[in-house]
Structure formats: structure tokens, C-alpha cells
Design brief:
Layout (H helix, E strand, L loop, with lengths): L2 H22 L6 H8 L27 H15 L4 H11 L17 H10 L21 H8 L4 H12 L5 H18 L6 H26 L13 H12 L5 H10 L14 H13 L6 H9 L5 H16 L6 H6 L3 H13 L9 H19 L2 H5 L1 H7 L17 H18 L10
Helix pairs in contact: 1-14, 1-16, 3-4, 3-6, 6-7, 6-8, 7-8, 8-9, 8-14, 9-10, 10-11, 10-12, 11-12, 12-13, 12-14, 13-14
């Protein structure tokens, strides 16, 4: 590969970790609360000042979480044994879950419940089988990033690899197609210069729709009895991309996207940055294509301003924008502020060279060291007063953090649905005055 390709490959891998780390501090926060606590999302944020006020669990400044850790598991598998990368990926993913500090799932940082469920199911997965889990929150979309960077160009082989690696963790139709789409967009942005974005956006979306249609057809052929999304489910993701192509310039595009995605899930979709792959991926793509200033920094900061699933959103935008703009366009402060930057850079360079360098750290040792360090820092930050008030904080901060939306009753049970939202509105009214401002912090 030429120097430009190498610089963009490094930018994509490094950008994924940067976006993940930057979004992790605010993950779960609603936009208004995030702005009140942190201001603009234009750098890594230190959560120590709001421990006990707006956040319960410590997160090290500049340290990435589970989306990048999962991607690194696949990256190391490819670099160690590309022919058996699926088995190697399973081993790496399981290894990271074996042991870790109290309160962590192995050495994974800030993982969602679908990760530990997927890892647990890996113990019973035989060759040729797929996961029984049916999650579609976009956590596993980043598994496609190292595959795309390793191959460099889109192909049927790469599409199949993206599908297979996702099926190890989730068999959900939307998650699988979204993972294939993620891999395609990495390769598409690698081949594109930033100056071409205005004229190429329509072609990118048209090609992305075709990629989704092919992935949906292959999925349907393999799993003809899948009920994901009901009767309209087989063409759901391609329909979202088609709608995006038609409405990209419309002011109500994101509102349309939520309405469209809402028909494919029992949970109400009111915000594009909720944890649903069918809204998160188009939103991330929207932020790259419609970046206000056409730069890596602008794309990432714009995406994080939507709040909620900022970690996954940041990882996706970071990977795509990094592929588009290259490593040199990532702000210097963001490069130096990324925890474990040297090892991320080594692996990015290895993906561009398609071989692992001798000086890299073993994946488990590297991630265990970072998680242990975060755990020890967190213990020092948690004062006695914070420990006493932890239960109170958990109650008061639920209006700041959007996690309760995932546990809302099904829309089909209208009585429970109305009761849930009536009580939620009342609690919001009582708690909103307790949100700390930047000045109070």
C-alpha cells in the first residue's frame, strides 16, 4: 500500500479509539445534561469533578472502552492468524472476559449487558454455529473496522468476513447488516479525499444501499425464519439508507429516521442516538457527510453533541472520519491525550502492513493493565461522602443518563406504557433541579 493509504489506515484505527475514548466520559448522557456538565465535546473530559453529582462509575480520561476493545480482539486475531481469524477472535474476546477488577466484566470497560451475554454464549459455540443472542445496539459494528483496514478494498470476501464475525456475537439481522455496512464505509472513505465529499455523498449512499441489499438477501437466504423487524424487516437497513439519500438535505431527516426505525422495534425510538443500530449508523454517517467544517474534529464533535450512545457513535465516526481525513488531521491534543496511544498506533501500523510487529504488547496484558489502572484511580477518586451518597446519586442521576429508555415497557402494552411515561415525567420534574452546572462543579 502507498503512504497515503497507510496514513489513512492508521487514521481510521486510531480515530476509532479517539472517538470511543472521547465519547465514553459522556456515554448515556442526554444532550442538555452533557452540555451542562461538560460544555462542548471538543476534548477528552475528566469525570472526577462530577463523581457523586452526575456520574456513578469512574472512567479514566482519554481511555477507550468496549467497542474498541472488541475491535482490537479481531485486529490481533487477523495479525496473528488471518486464515483462522474467527477462532482467534473468539479466543481473544473470551480471554478479555476471564478476570478483572471488582465491578468490571473481565477487563472490558463500560460494556453493555449484551457483551457479557455474547461472551457467555461463546463457550457453547461450535464451528459453523452462530450466536443465539439477538442484540442490535451497534456494539458489534466496530468488529468490521480491523477487517476492512486489513483488506483495504471492498469485496465479497470482506462482506462475508464482516457478517461472520458479527454472527459470533449476535445473529440479529440489523446488527449483521450494520456490521457489513460499517466495513464497506471504512473502505469507501479510505479511497476518498475530503474534497470529494460534497459531490460523492449521493454515490456513497447509493452504493451503501446496494451493499445493505446484498447483505440482507444473503442473511435471508441463511436465516429464512428470522422474525427481526416483522414483514418489513428483510429490507429495513437498506430502506434507512435509501431514505437517507432522499432526505439528507432535509431539516427533518433525523426525525424521519426515528419514525422509520420505530416501526422495527418494540421500544420507542425518539432519538437517533439511542442504542439501536438502525439509527446509530445512519446518524454516524450523517455526521461524517454533513460535518459543518469538513474535518475530523468537526465530524466527531458534531456526533457527540447528540448524546446518549456517545461511545459507540464516537467509535464509528472516528473510524470513518479517520479513514477519510487521515491520521495527520486528528488534532495533536487528541493524539497525545489518548491513553495507550503507542499501542494503538502500533496495531494501526500493523494493519496497514498486514503483519504484527514484535514490540507490541500482548492484548490481554495491555488491556488488563489499562483496566487495573482505571480501577485504582477510581478508588482514589471515590471519597467517603461519595460512597455514602452513591445510592442517592443513582436515583437522582437517572434523568441525566438515558439508560432507563432501554427498560421501558413494550409499546404493545398501552396501559403499562402510559403509566411508565407518566411516572417518568413526574420524576423528571422533581429531579431536573438537581443537575449540577459547570459553575457548581
Amino acid at each position: 500500500m502507498n503512504d497515503i493509504s497507510k496514513e489513512k489506515i492508521i487514521g481510521s484505527c486510531f480515530g476509532m479509539a479517539v472517538g470511543d475514548a472521547m465519547g465514553r466520559a459522556a456515554n448515556g448522557l442526554k444532550p442538555a445534561a452533557m452540555a451542562q456538565l461538560f460544555g462542548p465535546m471538543d476534548d477528552y473530559k475528566d469525570v472526577r469533578a462530577i463523581l457523586g453529582k452526575g456520574i456513578k462509575n469512574y472512567r479514566m480520561k482519554g481511555l477507550y472502552g468496549a467497542p474498541t476493545q472488541c475491535a482490537l480482539s479481531v485486529a490481533d486475531a487477523l495479525l496473528n492468524n488471518k486464515k483462522q481469524f474467527l477462532n482467534e477472535s473468539v479466543n481473544n474476546i473470551k480471554e478479555l472476559a476471564k478476570s478483572g477488577p471488582e465491578g468490571y466484566f473481565g477487563v472490558y470497560r463500560n460494556p453493555s449487558s449484551c457483551l457479557w451475554k455474547a461472551v457467555d454464549l461463546l463457550d457453547h459455540l461450535e464451528d459453523g454455529q452462530v450466536s443465539e443472542q439477538n442484540s442490535c445496539n451497534a456494539l458489534f459494528a466496530t468488529l468490521a473496522v480491523p477487517l476492512a483496514l486489513f483488506q483495504g478494498r471492498w469485496s465479497k470476501t470482506l462482506a462475508r468476513q464482516c457478517s461472520e464475525v458479527c454472527l459470533l456475537m449476535s445473529r440479529n439481522r440489523f446488527e449483521v447488516v450494520g456490521t457489513v455496512l460499517t466495513g464497506f464505509l471504512v473502505t469507501r472513505f479510505l479511497a476518498l479525499s475530503p474534497e470529494e465529499i460534497p459531490s460523492a455523498s449521493a454515490d456513497i449512499l447509493r452504493e451503501a444501499e446496494e451493499v445493505c441489499q446484498l447483505a440482507e438477501a444473503e442473511y435471508l437466504q441463511r436465516f429464512p425464519n428470522s422474525e427481526d423487524g416483522g414483514a418489513k424487516g428483510p429490507h429495513a437497513m437498506s430502506g434507512a439508507i435509501k431514505g437517507m439519500a432522499d432526505k439528507l438535505q432535509d431539516a427533518d431527516f433525523l426525525e424521519w429516521l426515528c419514525d422509520y426505525a420505530d416501526s422495527f422495534t418494540q421500544l420507542e425510538i425518539r432519538h437517533p442516538s439511542q442504542g439501536f443500530v438502525m439509527t446509530l449508523l445512519p446518524l454516524a454517517l450523517f455526521c461524517v457527510l454533513q460535518s459543518p467544517e469538513k474535518s475530523f474534529a468537526s465530524s466527531l464533535s458534531h456526533s457527540l453533541s447528540y448524546g446518549r450512545e456517545t461511545e459507540k457513535l464516537g467509535a464509528l465516526v472516528g473510524a470513518w472520519a479517520g479513514a477519510l481525513y487521515g491520521f495527520e488531521e486528528i488534532p495533536t491534543a487528541w493524539k497525545s491525550g489518548l491513553v495507550n496511544a503507542k499501542e494503538i498506533r502500533l496495531r494501526a501500523e500493523a494493519l496497514s502492513a498486514r503483519r504484527l510487529k514484535k514490540e507490541h504488547k500482548h492484548l490481554l496484558d495491555m488491556e488488563a493493565g489499562m483496566t487495573d489502572k482505571e480501577f485504582e484511580e477510581g478508588k482514589r477518586c471515590l471519597t467517603k461522602e461519595m460512597k455514602k451518597s452513591s445510592s442517592r446519586v443513582q436515583m437522582q442521576s437517572s434523568d441525566l443518563w438515558d439508560e432507563e429508555e432501554s427498560y421501558a415497557p413494550s409499546k404493545e402494552d398501552r396501559a403499562d406504557w402510559r403509566k411508565f411515561h407518566k411516572e417518568k415525567t413526574k420524576l423528571k420534574r422533581d429531579r431536573r433541579k438537581n443537575i449540577p452546572s459547570i459553575e457548581e462543579i
